[in-house]
Amino acid sequence: MPVTPRRAAPDDPGHPARTAPVLASVDALDRAVAGCRACPRLVAWREEAARVRRAAFADWEYWARPVPGFGPPDAALAIVGLAPAAHGGNRTGRIFTGDPSGDALYAALYETGLASQPTATHRGDGLELYGVRITVPVHCAPPGNRPTTAERDTCRPWLARELRLLRPTLRAVVALGAFAWQALLPVLAGTGWQLPRPRPVFGHGAEVFLGAEAEGRGLWLLGGYHPSRRNMFTGTLTPEMLREVLRRGAGAAGLR
């Protein structure tokens, strides 16, 4: 008689590892992600941010849960960031929505023909992505925008399952920032793509092709600086630099 894998409770650190592999669709994955409570520090922080709101958002009912990925389940291009912002995605319930990083990213996506509108303010605002799905290695807002290594690793099965579900259509991934790049490498290797040796190093404009270990196509991995407020303010990343890496990602994915 087959043994049914034991599922962990949402507040068990093993919840993502036990739950993610059995999910059969991106929609099911998104629902499971939103109910996760596996990292006590992150749960406490995201809920505290919802209680102690910024004055500008005093009338908002914060999402205050893990923020799932956003975009179609048959995307050819994935964009991977870091984690939701405490008063951005943690407030709105949609990744990169309601904070300066999202303002920069969605404007660039619109200008490159990958989004239906240049702004993202809340779930249900009509925004659509064309052939693109945005996700993160850590689905809860971390204090100081700095998740721990243990939190990243606990959350990793969600990202691994998401990329596995996307694999039939996925042709390219853009990693926004070194954290996303480093989090992605073991996930991509475990999902069936071959990493070159030595392992590729992150940089803005980095581009590497990963062959498929079995059936299926290879994958282009591209690096770009994260559109953080600091990077945009200092000119480390300009709007044109962001648009260019997205155009290259779209081209590698066959969207242009």
From TrEMBL:
<dbReference type="InterPro" id="IPR005122">
    <property type="entry name" value="Uracil-DNA_glycosylase-like"/>
</dbReference>
<comment type="similarity">
    <text>Belongs to the uracil-DNA glycosylase (UDG) superfamily. Type 5 (UDGb) family.</text>
</comment>
<feature type="domain" description="Uracil-DNA glycosylase-like">
    <location>
        <begin position="68"/>
        <end position="246"/>
    </location>
</feature>
<keyword id="KW-0378">Hydrolase</keyword>
<protein>
    <recommendedName>
        <fullName>Type-5 uracil-DNA glycosylase</fullName>
    </recommendedName>
</protein>
<dbReference type="InterPro" id="IPR051536">
    <property type="entry name" value="UDG_Type-4/5"/>
</dbReference>
<keyword id="KW-0479">Metal-binding</keyword>
<keyword id="KW-0227">DNA damage</keyword>
<dbReference type="Pfam" id="PF03167">
    <property type="entry name" value="UDG"/>
</dbReference>
<keyword id="KW-0411">Iron-sulfur</keyword>
<keyword id="KW-0004">4Fe-4S</keyword>
<keyword id="KW-0408">Iron</keyword>
<dbReference type="InterPro" id="IPR044147">
    <property type="entry name" value="UdgB-like"/>
</dbReference>
<keyword id="KW-0234">DNA repair</keyword>
<dbReference type="InterPro" id="IPR036895">
    <property type="entry name" value="Uracil-DNA_glycosylase-like_sf"/>
</dbReference>
